[in-house]
Amino acid sequence: MLLEKNISLQCKNMMKKGSSSFYQAFKWLPRKEREAVYVIYSFCRMIDDSVDEPENSPYTLDELEYHLNKLEEADGHFIWSALRWVFDEFSLKKEPYHIQISGQRLDFVQKSYPSMTELEDYCYRVAGSVGEMLIPILHPNPNQSLIDAGISLGKGMQIVNIIRDIGADQRLGRRYVPLELMKQYGYSEADWHDQVVNQALKEVISALTDQADQWFFEGLRYIDEYPNKSAFAMKLAAGYYREIIAVVKENDYQVFTERAVVTSQRKSHLLLQLTK
């Protein structure tokens, strides 16, 4: 059974508006799987917006969790019937969604990260959990190795998000770049406050990029075990995210005042490379 057409369109529009890279990568999936990704992305977007843009969110984080717990009777928004559909069609579990919510809840109480260990936990909660949600959509019978790889891919993407959004997060009073990493390369908290772009910051970002690349490698390790269209979508999504780092470098690591954006032309070039 396919998702109701008008609900599918609303979820699709949420994804196109929220992440053109994700939309462009996953639109190649078969219809049922594509619509499931739209739904999952839309719900995750609502979770994120409830924290970062509460004035524009129809629900608080607690309300989203409450309705998720009572999903069978939840109403008042198209997302609930959409979630019921995707949970039923793909026999999904709620645990990754609760993990996602727990990660977003951290943003209320933790504004900076002392260590890579703590940052990895955050990346797992807010993005690795998304990989955990999507793998049962992208693979008909995933084992634990595939799920773990999906978690790694999500964590890698979150590191890229953190690098890209350094300036925006700083304006919100947040610093996800671990203090231990800053100290390791001689980049001080005063430098951070003053938005200094120097060799030390470049080394910090390079270290974060190396970690992201490791997680991308782990995330795509079993890519040949996926259906062709799923494998293509995952490789394209990873390629789009990795291209963000290329733009950061082209901007000479000015991450405080410039947001690295991958143009449509660059995305088209990546698409052509993968289809050769």
As for the CATH topology of the largest domain, it is Farnesyl Diphosphate Synthase
Number of domain modules: 2
* CATH fourth-tier homologous superfamily of the largest domain: Farnesyl Diphosphate Synthase
Please work out how many helical segments DSSP would assign: 14
Strand content: under 5%
Q: pLDDT below 50 for ≥5 consecutive residues: which ranges?
A: none
Give me the count of strands.
0
CATH architecture of the largest domain: Orthogonal Bundle
Protein name: Phytoene/squalene synthase family protein
GO biological process, one term: carotenoid biosynthetic process
Keywords: Carotenoid biosynthesis, Transferase
Pathway: Carotenoid biosynthesis
Q: What this model shows, in words?
A:
Helix 1 (5-18) crosses helix 3 and helix 7 crosses helix 8. The chain has 276 residues and is mostly helical. It has helices spanning 5-18, 20-26, 31-52, 61-69, 78-90, 95-109, 116-138, 144-164, 166-171, 179-184, 189-193, 199-219, 228-250, 264-275. It contains 14 helices and no strands.
Brief sketch in words of this structure:
Helix content is 71%, strand content 0%. By secondary structure, it is an all-alpha fold.
